[in-house]
Amino acid sequence: MVNCPTHSRLRNAPRATLPFIIFSLLLAVLAACGGSNTSTSSTNSQKANLAQQQVLNFPNVGINDLAVLDPAQGPDGNSAQAVNMIYSGLVKNDQNLKTLPDQATWQISSDQRVYTFKINPNVTFSDGTPVTAQTYVYTWTRSLLQATASPIASFFMAPIEGADAVANNKAKTLSGVKAIDDHTLQVTLTHPTPYFLSELSNSLFFPLNQKVIEKYGSQWTQHAAGNGLGTGPFMVKDWQHSKKMVLVPNPHYYGNKPKLTQINMLFVVNPATALQTYLAGQYDFMWNIPAELQVTVKDKPGFVRKPLLQSDLLFFDNTKEPFNKTAVRQAFAYATDKQTLVKDVFKDAVTVAPTIIPPGMPGYQPGYAGLPYDANKAKELLKSAYPDLNKVPKITFSYPSSQVSANEAAVLQSMWQSALGIQVKLDPVELSAYNDRTSKHEVQFGFTQWGADFPDPYDWLTLNLSSHASNNNGQWSNAQFDQIVKKAEQTSDQNARIQLYNQAEQIAVSDVGWLPIDHQALAAIISTWIHGLTMSGNGLYFGDWSNVYILQH
């Protein structure tokens, strides 16, 4: 058996220098030898510096409301801000996406197929309902049932024995997940899966309160206020749709208790409006600052920009003309001048993306050139498919207005018109409505952002570009790609897996299953009075919420 190391129970902390570590150890020794006044003094000093009002005003920038509160539905990045406060699971990620125990510790069998989790008996939902191993059996099975219509469960849970049978309505029981006793959960996989523990940090795997779901049925998340939806550090006190959500500490939380007494999560669609509201003192921090606005605030105290494990990409409806023709998709790829886009629109706040997978992720290919800008080649490819450009069907580029600025869309439109000699209509859409349209495959030519759920190429390629993947918005299908990623999923050697995923990614780029534009960075202004809020490759990072509080200012 392979045991989870006990030191991984430690809460994540910023990387420290060696002298600082030695100094810290010295202080610890002095304290252990009778210097208890130091600890008391530090605690008293912290209390003295705390603001009297521990209410965090949290702008959720880019939306007019939370779109998804059911983890099985694959929350978008904005919805995930609330989901990750309300729910928690067996494991969690630290700032560097390292997997740590949360509700459980684990053992792994010698053949790497059986995971045995020991669940903390103190874990309950925020209404006091106990969480048992059976709670996990219920939650994971529910996510796979066709009635739940989860767009992500069948792919995330594919390695679990019996998942396919439940997803295809051939079984109602998830055979690979068993409650051995109240606090022992056993999970059996069909084959060794190196990323399985990392996957469990996704909210899809977090326990749900069966009692609440059965009481309210399909509308259970609309009754979030006052009900024990999850096991996270906070619960919903009030949800005023299209305005704000108010969260308060979960009185039954098994972890360290938050110092914050309330979080006001305020929905604001327009980033420019959000920035002005922050500068007027109405928010405690600001994030999702667009590149064109960063120029004006980059010298403000607390401004920070961090590369994200996230890519901006374009997709095409492969089922209809003109984008069912590979040459047309390639023409648009060669017609997109990413260097100019990054320099003139993003002011070098992001990096050019020849690849789908960004730097910092396993499987990133730094030497791969992709399909570089070449206006002549673009025109040749388009004419090979449509010798008479007047016969090219009308093309509409739809995009979420909160993620693509009017300037960026206009620059892209101009590039395509200049290189290809055709007009592309622009269609800006509010994010929630846009996500609804993409899920129904109603977008002809669209934009998407993808960020790492866990550090493995499976999350980028198999989950999004396999022929039958629910996230495959353009319904791109390539038999060779499918064959290679399937082989990668059955390969336990990590180096061999990465090589296979490299091959698959090159197929996806050259056949334009996705057209990568840029690898993103996140800009934020974190006020000096906010303690414990930092950023990771996945965006805002709060870590241990007991360490997030407001200082006097």
UniProtKB/TrEMBL annotation:
Q: Show the CDD domains listed in the entry.
A: PBP2_OppA
Instruction: Mark the transmembrane ranges.
Output: none
Q: Does the keyword Transport belong to this entry?
A: yes
* SUPFAM superfamilies linked to this entry: Periplasmic binding protein-like II
Q: Which domain of life is it from?
A: Bacteria
* Presence of keyword Isomerase: no
Alphabetical UniProt keywords? Signal, Transport
Which positions fall inside the Solute-binding protein family domain? 106-471
Compartments annotated for it: namely: Cell envelope
* InterPro entries assigned: Peptide/Ni-bd (IPR030678), SBP_5 (IPR039424), SBP_5_dom (IPR000914)
Which Gene3D superfamilies does UniProt cross-reference here? Dipeptide-binding Protein, Domain 1, Dipeptide-binding Protein, Domain 3, Periplasmic binding protein-like II
Which protein family is named in the record? Answer: Belongs to the bacterial solute-binding protein 5 family.
The molecule here is called: ABC transporter substrate-binding protein
Give the source species: Dictyobacter formicarum
